[in-house]
Amino acid sequence: MIVESEKKRTTIWRVIITVTTVIIVALGVFLVVKMFTGNPLAGTWTLDDGTMTLEIGSSKAVVTSLDEEGSLTYDYKLNPQEKEIQFMKRESGTASLEALDSSFNYSVDGEVLTLSEREYGEQFIFEKE
Protein backbone atom coordinates (compact mmCIF):
# COMPACT_ATOMS: atom_id res chain seq x y z
CA MET A 1 0.00 0.00 0.00
CA ILE A 2 2.78 2.45 0.86
CA VAL A 3 4.64 1.58 -2.36
CA GLU A 4 1.60 2.39 -4.52
CA SER A 5 1.08 5.78 -2.91
CA GLU A 6 4.82 6.49 -3.23
CA LYS A 7 4.64 5.70 -6.97
CA LYS A 8 1.61 7.97 -7.36
CA ARG A 9 3.34 10.78 -5.46
CA THR A 10 6.44 10.45 -7.60
CA THR A 11 4.39 10.47 -10.80
CA ILE A 12 2.37 13.51 -9.72
CA TRP A 13 5.56 15.32 -8.64
CA ARG A 14 7.23 14.65 -12.01
CA VAL A 15 4.17 15.93 -13.88
CA ILE A 16 4.11 19.11 -11.79
CA ILE A 17 7.85 19.73 -12.31
CA THR A 18 7.56 19.07 -16.07
CA VAL A 19 4.58 21.43 -16.52
CA THR A 20 6.27 24.14 -14.43
CA THR A 21 9.49 23.83 -16.43
CA VAL A 22 7.63 24.08 -19.75
CA ILE A 23 5.78 27.19 -18.57
CA ILE A 24 9.00 28.88 -17.39
CA VAL A 25 10.84 28.08 -20.64
CA ALA A 26 7.90 29.31 -22.76
CA LEU A 27 7.71 32.54 -20.77
CA GLY A 28 11.47 33.08 -21.15
CA VAL A 29 11.32 32.52 -24.92
CA PHE A 30 8.36 34.89 -25.22
CA LEU A 31 10.15 37.66 -23.31
CA VAL A 32 13.38 37.30 -25.31
CA VAL A 33 11.48 37.37 -28.62
CA LYS A 34 9.41 40.37 -27.50
CA MET A 35 12.50 42.31 -26.37
CA PHE A 36 14.55 41.80 -29.53
CA THR A 37 11.93 41.79 -32.28
CA GLY A 38 9.56 44.52 -31.11
CA ASN A 39 9.52 48.07 -32.40
CA PRO A 40 11.28 50.24 -29.79
CA LEU A 41 9.65 53.38 -31.22
CA ALA A 42 6.03 52.19 -31.22
CA GLY A 43 3.65 54.49 -29.39
CA THR A 44 2.67 58.13 -29.22
CA TRP A 45 5.37 60.77 -28.78
CA THR A 46 5.00 64.53 -28.20
CA LEU A 47 7.59 67.07 -29.35
CA ASP A 48 9.27 68.74 -26.36
CA ASP A 49 7.77 72.15 -27.19
CA GLY A 50 4.29 70.60 -27.46
CA THR A 51 3.64 71.63 -31.08
CA MET A 52 3.63 68.19 -32.68
CA THR A 53 2.76 64.57 -31.90
CA LEU A 54 4.22 61.52 -33.60
CA GLU A 55 2.26 58.28 -33.47
CA ILE A 56 4.29 55.31 -34.67
CA GLY A 57 2.42 52.12 -35.46
CA SER A 58 3.47 48.84 -37.02
CA SER A 59 3.67 50.11 -40.61
CA LYS A 60 2.98 53.85 -40.60
CA ALA A 61 3.64 56.99 -38.62
CA VAL A 62 1.16 59.84 -38.23
CA VAL A 63 2.43 63.34 -37.46
CA THR A 64 -0.12 65.77 -36.07
CA SER A 65 0.52 69.48 -35.72
CA LEU A 66 -1.15 70.87 -32.62
CA ASP A 67 -0.69 74.46 -33.87
CA GLU A 68 -2.12 74.06 -37.36
CA GLU A 69 -4.70 71.34 -36.65
CA GLY A 70 -3.46 69.09 -39.43
CA SER A 71 -1.88 65.69 -39.77
CA LEU A 72 0.33 63.85 -42.24
CA THR A 73 0.86 60.11 -42.68
CA TYR A 74 4.32 58.67 -43.35
CA ASP A 75 5.54 55.23 -44.25
CA TYR A 76 8.76 54.37 -42.49
CA LYS A 77 11.66 51.93 -42.56
CA LEU A 78 13.23 51.02 -39.25
CA ASN A 79 16.74 49.60 -38.95
CA PRO A 80 17.24 48.66 -35.27
CA GLN A 81 20.83 47.48 -35.77
CA GLU A 82 21.92 50.88 -37.12
CA LYS A 83 19.39 52.77 -34.94
CA GLU A 84 18.05 54.48 -38.03
CA ILE A 85 14.54 55.38 -39.14
CA GLN A 86 13.60 56.76 -42.54
CA PHE A 87 10.27 58.52 -43.03
CA MET A 88 8.64 58.70 -46.50
CA LYS A 89 5.56 60.90 -46.76
CA ARG A 90 2.41 59.55 -48.38
CA GLU A 91 0.89 62.94 -49.22
CA SER A 92 1.80 66.62 -49.04
CA GLY A 93 1.25 68.74 -45.98
CA THR A 94 2.43 71.93 -44.36
CA ALA A 95 6.12 72.71 -43.94
CA SER A 96 6.12 71.92 -40.22
CA LEU A 97 4.55 68.52 -40.84
CA GLU A 98 7.00 67.72 -43.64
CA ALA A 99 9.99 68.33 -41.35
CA LEU A 100 10.27 64.58 -40.74
CA ASP A 101 10.55 63.65 -44.43
CA SER A 102 14.14 62.41 -44.08
CA SER A 103 16.41 59.80 -42.49
CA PHE A 104 17.20 60.02 -38.79
CA ASN A 105 19.38 58.32 -36.24
CA TYR A 106 17.27 57.62 -33.19
CA SER A 107 17.98 57.21 -29.52
CA VAL A 108 15.46 56.06 -26.93
CA ASP A 109 16.38 56.90 -23.37
CA GLY A 110 13.54 55.78 -21.13
CA GLU A 111 10.60 57.97 -22.07
CA VAL A 112 12.57 60.32 -24.38
CA LEU A 113 13.04 59.79 -28.12
CA THR A 114 15.71 61.83 -29.90
CA LEU A 115 15.68 61.95 -33.71
CA SER A 116 18.89 63.34 -35.22
CA GLU A 117 18.75 64.08 -38.93
CA ARG A 118 21.55 62.26 -40.71
CA GLU A 119 22.28 64.94 -43.29
CA TYR A 120 22.08 68.24 -41.39
CA GLY A 121 22.15 67.16 -37.74
CA GLU A 122 18.86 68.82 -36.78
CA GLN A 123 17.36 67.21 -33.67
CA PHE A 124 13.80 66.55 -32.62
CA ILE A 125 13.22 65.53 -29.00
CA PHE A 126 9.97 63.74 -28.20
CA GLU A 127 8.53 62.56 -24.89
CA LYS A 128 6.37 59.44 -24.67
CA GLU A 129 2.75 60.00 -23.75
UniProtKB/TrEMBL annotation:
* Keywords, sorted A to Z: Membrane, Transmembrane, Transmembrane helix
Does the entry feature the keyword Membrane, yes or no?
Answer: yes
Q: Where are the bilayer-spanning segments?
A: 12-33
Please report the name of this protein according to its UniProt entry.
DUF5640 domain-containing protein
* The species this protein was found in: Ohessyouella blattaphilus
